[in-house]
Write a structure and sequence with these properties.
Rossmann fold, single chain
Length: 160
């Protein structure tokens, strides 16, 4: 039986760097999975985001290097409606999850850090590359790519 909640929501601050990259990477990974995982919807939002801002040029460039297009991204804030649809919320840092817990009363059961499933020796936080050079965005992307297999493994166990 499919879940009522079929959204994976990736969260960062402004929804123009980290969470859009994470969104696209997860979409790409889940497209290669069997049902029901390939039917999951992945979106991104920011705890301090406005509506309609494009992804940062360095985020677009980093994903372009792995042949993923981020050029059409438009930012959106975290809303209760998004949280109500979410099976899983993946924050980039502890502060993102803390802000959601502070400002929203009805929360999804599963709220984790993007790198949380990688094991006890992994750094779970993904620093914000905003305003830095391209290398910072590449490091950010690499840390996300490294986490994708552990997220997919988690979803294989949890999403039925």
């Amino acid at each position: 039986m499919a879940q009522d909640r079929n959204l994976i929501l990736t969260i960062c601050t402004g929804n123009v760097c980290r969470s859009p990259m994470a969104e696209k990477l997860l979409q790409h990974a889940l497209a290669a999975e069997d049902s029901p995982l390939k039917e999951l919807i992945v979106e991104s939002a920011g705890v301090a985001a406005g509506y309609g801002e494009p992804a940062s040029s360095n985020s677009v460039a980093a994903l372009k290097k792995v042949k993923i297009d981020l050029s059409q991204h438009k930012s959106q804030p975290v809303t209760q409606e998004l949280l109500d649809r979410a099976f899983l919320v993946l924050g980039m840092t502890d502060s993102h999850l803390d802000i959601i817990e502070h400002y929203h009363t009805e929360l999804p059961e599963r709220m984790h850090l993007f790198r949380e499933f990688m094991g006890p020796d992994a750094d779970e936080q993904i620093p914000d590359p905003y305003g830095q050079n391209f290398d910072a965005y590449q490091e950010c992307l690499d840390s996300m790519v490294e986490a994708i297999p552990s997220i997919v493994a988690y979803l294989r166990k949890e999403y039925k």
